[in-house]
Amino acid sequence: MLHIGIIGCGGMGTHHAKVISEMDDLALVGVADSIKEKADQVAGELFTTAFEDYRDLISYVDAVMICTPPFERTQIVIDCAQAGVHIFVEKPIALDLESADRMLEAAEKADVIMMIGYVLRFTHPFQILHETFAKGKLGRLVNCWTRRYMPYDTSGRWYGDQSKSGGVELDFASHDIDWLRWVGGEVRQVCGRVERVRPGIQADEHVHAVMLFDKGIGSVDASWAPGLSDSSIGILGTKGSMIVDHDGTIRQKIGEEEETVIRPCKGETIQRHFVRCATQKRTPKVTGYDGRAALEIVLAIQESSMAGHSVEVEHKSK
What we know:
The structure is a single chain. The chain is α/β, with parallel strands linked by helices. It folds into 2 domains: 2-119, 3-Layer(aba) Sandwich (Rossmann fold), CATH 3.40.50.720; 123-263 and 287-312, Dihydrodipicolinate Reductase, domain 2 (2-Layer Sandwich), CATH 3.30.360.10. The chain has helices spanning 11-21, 36-46, 54-57, 74-82, 97-110, 126-134, 162-165, 167-171, 173-184, 270-280, 288-307, and strands spanning 2-7, 26-32, 49-51, 63-66, 86-89, 114-116, 141-149, 189-195, 206-212, 217-223, 230-237, 240-244, 250-254, 260-262, 311-312. The strands form 2 sheets. The protein has a 9-stranded mixed β-sheet. A hairpin with a 4-residue loop joins strand 9 and strand 10. It is globular, with a radius of gyration of 20 Å. The model has no long low-confidence stretch (mean pLDDT 96).
């Protein structure tokens, strides 16, 4: 039986803790948060143990899900790796490449699993689009894209501090960037722009970028800025295309076939996948190096926005 702990009892930590507590063949040993009242509340709801210091928790577990903000997590990941504990890290992996590399080095040296919480790889419709394309049904990639507008007031929260969140391009759009890279492969060049829309906001609220793969292009358009919610997701290939409607259904047209509609469906959850990888010592669908690659692309978009021209992306692969 896998013994697992949660570090960080904010929104995502609480969500993961609840899902883990309902799974069979594992034990939620405890939850930790530097604000003990948060840990106490979650522990009380889920009948587990609360810890104020995460280091008191990790000696009792085989794996952890680390859900602290990115500006607080580097040493936590390193300590967990050195304790021989398998690690799930909420996105983004870090705010800078040096911190990401320190965590990756610690996990590799300790020979523990390190997985990043890019959930789009596990959810409808993103997973189905990728699977269909990967099977070659759509032909060679021409274009893949996401547009996700989710109005969100960041004032008064750490998300609204660029130095703590990395802005909408890292905290939110890196989900989309990870998925686009999953579809198209390594990004070679980007041209992007980030914007702060509302007066007084101290973090980027809007990002739009075009990415060049070895074959085909991708684009991400994401926003926290005020206004209407909207979304558009799709893949266009040389043999067919798939476009997602607002209700989550997928319209698919391949060659001369009639257009078909694919309804929402459920697959393996991100929590179950991490547990399976930790138990069986398998490589996760989203590795720490995938998290680093998403960070590299975001930093390139920021550089492109400042420079006013496209920039090359250099990858450290594993």
